[in-house]
# Entry
Amino acid sequence: MGKKVTIIGAGSVGSTIAYTMAVNGIATEVVMIDINESKSLGEALDIRQGISFYPPISIYAGGYPDAAGSDIVILTSGIARKPGQSRLDLAQTNVNITKSIISEITKYAPNAIYIIVSNPVDILTYVFTKISGLPEKQILGSGTLLDTARLRARLAEYFTINAQNVHAYVFGEHGDTSFVPWSLANISNIPIDQYGDYLTAKGAVVPKLVHSDVEDYIRKSGAKIIERKGATFYAVAVSVCHICKCIFTGVDTTMTVSSMMHGEYGIEDVCLSTLSTVGAGGIDGKLPVPLTDEELASLRRSADSLKNVLNSITI
# Structure
């Protein structure tokens, strides 16, 4: 059985996703679509010319009709964030771009699972959900999966431990109002603030973890990378490919992706990230893990911030 993916947008993010998929054998067919056809042709050709060194894949540039039969469609199109810009600054421009794409792509790939990556991802996931007419389970935003990856990487560095032993999440908006529910954070089932007390290695000294410093690092990481190299694309590409891999394996996997809220934690009619199970059908359900009162308040503040943006734009 083939694994067909269409990527809309052949910029840094879209092309890096395509390259990562090819190298790791995640898809068997990748279609790259971009308003700049020359760019998508060049990116597809560049990746295709390395095909003798990675698993077989058909990768080519095309138009919306070529998306027919896609299992997954990934939206990376839109105006990229510039130094000093917040993700929400992009809202109306990228909403308009997304709206122009929705009717074109859904008529050719109505059964695909749609992964929204463009920013502001929570706003665009909401718009896609409201306008597309597709079942909600087929639509998810990459959300705070990237933030969660950044969090785990930072904690792994801090404690000098394999990141796969770190279990912690970022909830809420993929942006300035995101937060870490520290009550859930642990390393190998040891609550993260107690981890240092359990170390028996001689001379092991772990300074006290300052939660606010870590959260500040997570929120500002994207902006720092953009300031230094102009764009972020490697970590987000790996994160999106992880979602695709979980969809194709069909084994439900919990992850922080953005999707429509229907009363979970008392939040309605907004897309943001909490723990969801993702599998062959897309979002198979949410996992409403218990939060402290303070964490719940933070999640609701994030929802309110996103609703304020939704109220300020034309959908």
Observations:
- DSSP finds nine helices and twelve strands in the chain.
